[in-house]
Amino acid sequence: MRVLAVRIRALFERPHLGSRAGACAGCAVALAVLCAAGEAYLRIAPPANLQDYLPDSDRTGPFAPDARYGVRYRSPDALQEDCPHYAQIRKFAELPDPPPCWAFFGNSFVQMPGALADTAREKQTRFAVANLPRTTTPAPIRFAQAEMLLETGLKPARAFFVFIPLDAHGFELHSLGQKRVTPGGALAYEPRPPAAGGALVRNSRLALAGYARTGLHHARPFAKAGALYDTVPESVRADFRTMFAAFAETAQRHRVPVSVVLLPSYEQVTRTVGFAVQDAIAEEARAVGWGVCDVRSAFRAHPNKPGLFLPDKHFSPTGNEVLLREVVKHADEAEARP
Amino acid sequence: MSFEQKPFLILFAVTFVAWLLVRHRERGTVTLLLAASLVFYAHNHWFLLPILFAYCAVNWWVAVRTERSSRPRFVMLLGVAFNLLVLCYYKYTPLLLQTFIDVPANAFEKWSIPYGISFYAFTGIAYMVEVYRKETTAEPNFWRYSLSACFFPHLVAGPILRPNEFLDRVRPGALPTEPDAPGEALWLIARGFFKKLVVADRIAVTIDPFFAHVNGAATEGVWALPYVWLYALQIFFDFSAYTDMARGFGMLFGYRWPENFDRPYLAASVTEFWRRWHMTLSRFLRDFLYIALGGNRRGRFRTHLNLMLTMLLGGLWHGASWSFLVWGGLHGTFLIAHRIWSGTRLARWLNAREGIGRHLWHAVAVLLTFHCVCLAWCFFRLTAFADSAACVRKWFECDPAKMWTGPWTDPAVWLAVALYAALAWAAHGVKPRPGFAHGALVGLRWGTLALAALLASPSSGAFIYFQF
After folding, report:
1. Which end of chain A, N or C, is less surrounded by CB atoms within 10 Å?
2. Structural domain count, chain B
3. Do the domain assignments include residue B465?
């Protein structure tokens, strides 16, 4: 070991190389060695944020690739593993004469304790409530959940897909087309191809890490979530259109009416920012014949707007009650229509 | 603001470029660096500026008065009392009220301790005492003194500087006009970023869940020792990263500050550990507390008592929790035990060994010291006594089936440590000679900086010592 160390030091100290050429060579050698070390490190132990962009990694999960949503659940067992609450819904669906129920699909505004699903369970008695809590639920996974529930026997009186403006931003980061599934079933993403050096990014993890650090790997690089209040890019609308069209076909087959519930953000309720994102999603939902429950007016007309939100900008119990009231009103109106 | 955050990098770049333009004009340099330091400190915390200003004003005035007063000791003690009282008010009010009066725990949820107060209070005390002892002269210019107290690289987490290490370099005619060894400075900064972003933050992701549930069912049967080893590494990499960056940034402005760490976990005794760990704090405690208490001049019992008092107060300096007192108490006990042990015939015999016996004994001593330090870290990391006790219990009680599994076996962590060790070894080994070696050093420094950015852990937490 000591001999090796002496040899390596001697290599660095070789005096016969010309000063400038030698310095360049030394710099190049050092950088090459460091790149090799970094590459080896990322091959052996890539950090979690890089693993998201390695569709061939050995991470495991419950998904299978799907042409319509990017991902779907591999099987009912996989859904059960991912969302333990699924067992209760299956039991409910297998009842000989199950009571009418509403199925809610959404992110934490629906799923977290005390949010819309729990409020609906507590504050209204006409419908049972089915929902599948999960740590994070990107929009395509909600449709994958819904499809698996319908295919395995649940027949809700209405399915509600709840969206917040940030859901649309998710498609600016990773479009439907970028979604991939690892061989083991975990969700991954194909980075947006770079303008130059695509082969390098595909073959070198160090280059991929550098590319991912720049933000250029996103579907819409450097897109700001706040900009969606004013304009919604066509690529984002197209992703909603694709998902809605795909699920509309499934819902029609199972004769389940669908509504989208469009929630306003804290900024939209308390400040004067636009509603372009809700308008765009509503337009795409109406195009496939779904109901639209847009609760912006009820929230903006509320006398205590800040009181509708918790400090973390989720809805407060009051906010959830206002939301539920609007959902019930929307469902009643939808039922009354011929 | 923290060194690894984008706002700091922008502030530093702007300040450095401006400094290159004004460095030959002393007034401009002092104004620029002081303004940058205030922006650094007050970024998102403007309400803290009056406290910093008060410290500067009082310490400057006290030092000047100490030099001129007929009762210098009284004036100096007033200044020291001010520094300590404000420090104690912010750090210990919640602890004392919760301990001695029945105040609900959530009453102090919004209580915030000014960043770096422990560091700039100690720097101020050192200055006033040295002026009183006539080891340095008081700086008559308020702005120059304020710059020495507030200069952003060392403001929040040290190193704790003595007047001859920094204040003397901002006096008239002494302000540097050139960076001091920019290549070395770049290496210190690159090394600091690598230690923090790649090693310390990666370790944090691995061990935080264990420590969060150390006293719960989730960690039942889990072997705690590897997590404590990793915490020992984390705190070393995290804190030494800050010091490296602080020294590197200081050198770019022409100031060279002392080392704060010297491979502390290779110490063969806890006494030696404190000569290698947070060296500027150890030096402060020795010179202004231990020696002031009488040091080792008043017999064995007083020496041991002074050691224990110094370490207990050193523990309390770290934070407002009784567990820091236990941490200090443990170190005090180890130091006393080492003094007693060193006087025994067996210790002298072991230390006199030659050859393999000497190496073997040294290895045992290093391992024993490291585990003593790790034992104390349990009380430093976990501020609830029940959690610390559970952690120590789990050193010895564990399910053999769970011993070699779990997050601590993640190769990413150990590889990150190994990669840093290789980089440090390479940088240490290459002599800065013209030609190939010079180029290699340049490549190594810039490459390490780039590698730190590329391999950074996805989540970066604040520096551990920011809370002190």
Report:
1. C
2. 3
3. yes
Catalytic machinery residues of B: 318
Q: B 382-411 residues with CB below 8 A of A?
A: 410-411
Nearest CA in chain B to A44: B412
Q: Do B440 and A47 touch (CB under 8 A)?
A: no
CA distance B32 to B28: 6
Residue of B nearest to A205 (CA): B454
**Can you spell out the DSSP letters for A246-285?**
HHHHHHHHHT--EEEEEPPPHHHHHS----HHHHHHHHHH
CB B232 within 8 A of CB B372: no
| B84: containing domain | 6-177
Task: Please give the average per-residue pLDDT across B373-401, as a whole number.
Answer: 87
CATH superfamily for domain A63-183+223-336: SGNH hydrolase (3.40.50.1110)
Per-residue pLDDT, B120 = 85
Measure the CA angle with vertex B162, ends B29 and B90; round to 5°: 90
Verify whether the Cβ–Cβ distance B436 to A14 is below 8 Å.
yes
Q: Where are the beta strands (DSSP E) in chain A?
A: 63-66, 70-73, 101-105, 128-131, 158-163, 179-181, 187-189, 258-262, 291-294
Q: Read off the pLDDT of residues A230-283 as tens digits, 9 standing for 90 and up.
A: 999 999 999 999 999 999 999 999 899 999 999 999 999 888 889 999 999 999
Whether B263 maps to a domain, the answer reads no
The length of chain A in residues reads: 338
On whether both B315 and B391 belong to a single domain, the answer is: yes
ipTM over 0.90: no
B175: part of which helix (H) or strand (E)?
A: none
The phi-psi region of residue A225 (left if phi > 0; otherwise alpha if psi is between -120 and 50; otherwise beta) is alpha
B293 and B413 assigned to the same domain: no
pLDDT for A40-71, tens place per residue? 988 888 877 788 888 888 888 899 998 888 88
Query: Taking CB atoms and an 8 Å cutoff, what residues of chain B touch A41?
Result: 412, 415-416, 419, 455
Q: Which residues of B touch A14 (CB under 8 A)?
A: 435-436
Model confidence at B405: pLDDT above 80: no
Q: Which residue on chain A is closest to B443 by alpha carbon? A: A27
Domain ranges in chain A are 2-54+190-214, 63-183+223-336
B48 and B128: one domain?
Answer: yes
Best B410, B436, B455, B459 member to test A by mutation, with max A CBs in 10 Å, is: B436
Measure B52 CA to nearest chain A CA, in Å.
31
Lowest-pLDDT range of A107-116, A205-214, B438-447, B459-468: B459-468
Do B211 and B185 fall within a single domain? yes
